[in-house]
Design goal:
five-stranded mixed sheet; 10 strands; transcription regulation; Response regulator
Length: 520
């Protein structure tokens, strides 16, 4: 069982979370509960939890301070799930830099909690599937992190105790949550055999973040440069054919020392970023990476985002596709860094989120999309990000269109009341549309959709009903009745009346006369 530490200053929430799901059913157990970050740090020494679920705002030490202490002071990469309220969402985004695994909006939804725990469980399952040589496996994990300093990487390479020269290949999986070390070991065996590489000359490790590091002693099979590239593509094809997923592969130069191997790992980290900008799975060689331009950090608001906002507000899917494509083409052409792209997309979704919130719309899908960007933007290929972001924009456009219809349906009720009070006036659809600041054609469509009757027909209906009342209860002449209900032409009125009632106003009045003046 994976051990969970719950951290929240409200006892009711701690108790509620503990009862929300059957934790053991999903492979988890709650080992302890803390009322703030300070108490959580003390309990961590006793319980060594595998997962932390924490609130943000708490006394003494809040959730962000707790995560910062776990990451920076204790150097632990324990998965963290943040609990956040709607008003705390801006605050929660500060946790991005601490690699928070998931955000759950309070009150916590049962299915969302299960989904978040399942993702963490599957990732930890991979992380625990390292080779028996776990010390080397942990070193590989640190070597594949861009945040690890070069000096530390040299020391880590020394700890591998590998024989030199050695060739490093790093495979970057794009969808790795269900991939285990055993699976990879078996389906890569034919590749080693095809290139006459015995197991004693190949060491490989799988990391929880989807990296497979392969250390090869090429002189054992006398691999030429061409054969090295052929081997790299053979590995890619094996992954694609077996796992049915895309991957990228970087090849370092032949390393003759821990220092050179550290350089190769450094290049692999760079390649993992550059691979996001490539249109299809490929092999990136160390020499190629050195020729690529550095990434840019351009945070100025792009005018295209304003255009995108307008296309979303107008629910124009084709325009959205064009603008989103332009935005991501700009990111690629200008080599905008993944972290900067994340800021741009996140900032835009926050702006749209406020717009939808003002319309009293459902902001949960937008929050989920923003969280998804937080978790995947720096590890997902640009073209996949583009399609996902476009789908999000189109979904928001549909939501806004629906909200507008709902709001306008309320306006239709107002228009109905207006017609019922002013039907006797000279009135047209254009006049009413202008009074309510609406396009007359759109108003006509909306009115018919809600009332299931055309506006003009409804107006006639209201006028004729009032005319019937006047004919029953007064001695007004037909022309006078016509004028009182909004018809200046008695003949036109008579035609409309007969169409709706079945006989003329005069016949209607005469037919009802005995009821008005019953015989004594």
């Amino acid at each position: 069982m994976l051990k969970v530490l719950l951290v929240d200053d409200e006892p009711v929430i701690r108790a509620g979370l503990a009862q929300l799901i059957q934790w053991e059913k999903y492979g988890f157990t709650i080992v302890s509960k803390a009322k703030n970050g300070e108490q959580a740090l003390q309990l961590m020494q006793e319980e060594a939890p595998d997962v932390i679920i924490t609130d943000i705002r708490m006394p003494k030490m809040d959730g962000l301070q707790l995560i910062q202490a776990v990451r920076e002071e204790r150097n632990l990469q324990i998965p963290v799930i943040i609990l956040t309220g709607f008003n705390e969402f801006d605050y929660a985004r500060q946790a991005i830099r601490y690699q928070v695994r998931d955000y759950l909006l309070k009150p916590v939804d049962k299915e969302e909690l299960i989904a978040a725990l399942t993702r963490i469980r599957d990732t930890l399952r991979i992380d625990h599937a390292l080779p028996v040589d776990s010390q080397s496996g942990n070193a590989i994990k640190l070597l594949l992190r861009s945040t690890t300093s070069h000096d530390i990487k040299i020391k880590l390479c020394q700890s591998l105790h590998t024989h030199y020269p050695v060739l490093l290949m790093v495979i970057m999986l794009q969808n790795h949550t269900q991939t285990t070390f055993t699976q990879i070991y078996h389906f890569l065996q034919p590749v080693w055999e095809a290139f006459r590489l015995s197991e004693s000359f190949v060491r490989f490790y799988i990391d929880a973040d989807g990296y497979i590091a392969v250390l090869i002693r090429p002189e054992s099979a006398h691999l030429s440069k061409t054969e090295e590239k052929q081997l790299a593509y053979a590995l890619l094809h094996a992954i694609h054919n077996t796992l049915d997923q895309e991957a990228f592969l970087s090849v370092g130069h032949l390393a003759h020392s821990p220092e050179q191997l550290a350089d190769a790992f450094q290049a692999a980290c760079a390649a993992s970023v550059y691979s996001l900008y490539v249109d299809r799975p490929t092999v990136l060689a160390y020499e190629d990476i050195k020729l690529l331009p550095p990434f840019k950090s351009q945070y100025e608001y792009l005018a295209s985002f304003q255009q995108l906002k307008e296309s979303i507000e107008n629910n124009n899917p084709q325009e959205m596709k064009i603008v989103v494509t332009d935005i991501f083409d700009f990111f690629v052409e200008q080599f905008i860094s993944p972290d900067t792209i994340k800021v741009h997309l996140y900032r835009f979704l926050l702006e749209i989120e406020k717009y939808v919130a003002e319309m009293n719309g459902d902001i949960q899908p937008i929050i989920k999309a923003a969280n998804h960007i937080d978790l995947t933007c720096t590890t997902t290929p640009i073209r996949i990000q583009r399609e996902t972001f476009l789908g999000t924009c189109q979904q928001i456009g549909t939501e806004i269109a629906f909200l507008r219809i709902q709001q306008n349906f309320g306006i239709i009720d107002q228009i109905e009341q207006y017609v019922n009070s002013h039907f006797h006036e000279n009135m047209t659809l254009k006049d009413v549309a202008a009074k309510f600041y609406m396009n007359h054609a759109y108003l006509g469509q909306l009115f018919r959709r809600k009332k299931e009757i055309h506006f003009n027909e409804y107006l006639h209906q209201v006028r004729i009903e009032e005319a019937k009342r006047l004919l029953r209860l007064t001695d007004l002449k037909i022309a006078e009745v016509a004028k009182k209900v909004g018809y200046n032409d008695p003949a036109y009125f008579s035609g409309k009346f007969e169409k709706h009632v079945g006989f003329t106003p005069t016949a209607y009045k005469l037919g009802l006369q005995p009821q008005i003046n019953p015989p004594k």
